[in-house]
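An instance as discussed:

___
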Amino acid sequence: MITFDKLHNKNFGFHDGVNFKNNVVCLLKENAKKKPDRVALQWVDPAFKGEWDKNVINENIPHKSINFKNFYDVITRTANGLKKAGVKHGDCVILFLPMSLYLYQAMSAIMMIGARAVFLDSWARRDQLGVSAKVVNPTTMISFEQAFQLCATVPELNEIPIKIVAGPHAGKYSATLEEISKSEPLSDIEAVEGEETALVTFTTGSSGVPKGADRTHRFLVAQHLALDECIPYESGDIDVPAFPIFSLNNIAAGVNTVIPITDIGRPSEKDPVMLVSQIKTCAITCATLSPSMIVNIAKFCDENKITMPKIRRVITGGAPISNDTLELFRKAVPNAEVWVLYGSTEVEPIAHIEAKDILFPKHGGKAGVEGVNVGHFAEGLEYKLLKINKGSIKLVNDSWDGLTVGKDEVGELAVAGLHVCKSYYNNTEAVAKTKIIESNGKVWHRTGDLARIDDQKNVWLVGRVHNAISRNGQLLFPVKVEILLKKHPDVKQSAYVGIPDEKMGEKAYALVMLVDNPKESKQEILSKLAEILKNENVPYDKLDVTANVPMDPRHHSKVEYDVLREAVLKEEKESACQSAAGSCASCDGCSVTSEGIVEEEKPFCQGGDDEECCEDTFKSFLKIGLVVFIAYILIKMLFGGKDDK
């Protein structure tokens, strides 16, 4: 087990007080010393203009590369250039760069001088970007010119004093990344406390202040050790990671890392052929792919009879994957282990499982309870399952009495360990909501995920705390149902979502988004899905096709339930107002019953929420009556006299 006692004063990041050996960049220096000629990074030559036929593989994509010796050299030069530009120990530096040499060179240089690399949520609204910037109070921003232009309307970003541009530009900046990377090498790594901030990575929820995970130097070292324990690399491995955190871990581990040719944030129908071409070109042995990538590559390889026999291991995670997809993908990588990794921004990894253990389980499941088996906990983690509680939790005398669930029950998963992020940067409210702190300083992170632990210590995820459906006093969980719905080949995405209802608490809606040009009719698809849900004893109040199941913009792997719920409610409200006889056509606030229609026998105001609607309706009738009355008087004045004569 990875413990503090084992690592204390023996590993980088775990030395007492201020010490240069606590700086995570020491890992990169070690790689430059021990593996100087090994390739650190490879990326597609920017001059390459591939004409992509979506079905034709190109096994000769030109790549550029840099070895660990030269990579560390450019880091030391960039670090010195940053100091000369005015960046100091403890400063926050915002990075708006895609996965590239620029990104890893700048990030490593920032940490080398004891400054803090900050990654904002690029999918956040502009006002939320400003809020995030205010949280960290940055002194510097490093980005391409396009991002500087986009941020010009965000005062908190536009007013950052030091602006360093990367790549081609027309405007004036404090410095260019190319210029500062030609400085003299910086010989010394800055001494830091182990718990000093190294990275701040922001995630933004549907509301509230964005949360910046405070990743310390010690945390990054512990995370690297946990990942290395969970998914060790071999000396000759070549890895293509879709997620930046795994690229960072690869650099620390001394692994040859290929930057993906595709952009995970902007999926394209050409992604599968491009990625498979890159895998073939670079003789990839390991890959870290998002679930959506797995789905698309599996389908592409199956349709085109393609295999990738050189791959020995694939890692995926971030969202559930159906057994059918896993089985299909394994055919594309016949010699590979396919591992599903469960983790989060705050804790990576939490648990892991090999695909064959999902496809061929050695134990029986409890029908109606299990969702997705994510395997066993990672080395060094402790866990608890908490009773569902959407508020903050404070321990009294370190007692957990009344807070945890019993054996075989579903509860919110909380974890503690060295690779658990302890805090959010300058955000005490987020810390209070998501952390439980014992008197000895041990920090438990509340994942927000609902889970059950079986007799073999497997972790079964069933949904999120905020997405559990409360229907007639019974809690229903989305994960398993959504996987069942996606069993039909004409279903592209699915969602099992709770819709507010006065009588039931919430109704359970099973919604599916169909593929383009489905082979079966809508009615045939729904009939088969109804049979699947019936066989699995899944309760639902509505099963229907929807035009869109909104997914998270980062990885396109998780359903955005709040967005979907709002869309459903809006659609039902509009439908009810249009179809109900005698309802007010001009009002969008009509009272809709659980049956989805306006109560026709009560067309006027019944009090409560209907008052504003009916007041508007009454005013409309009043205006019409007034117009009719005035018209009558005018007609009487003009023509009435003549009749009298």
Remarks:
- The longest helix spans residues 611-644.
- The chain has 19 helices and 27 strands.
- The chain has two domains: 4-360+397-453, 468-559.
- Confidence is low (pLDDT under 50) at residues 584-618, 641-645.
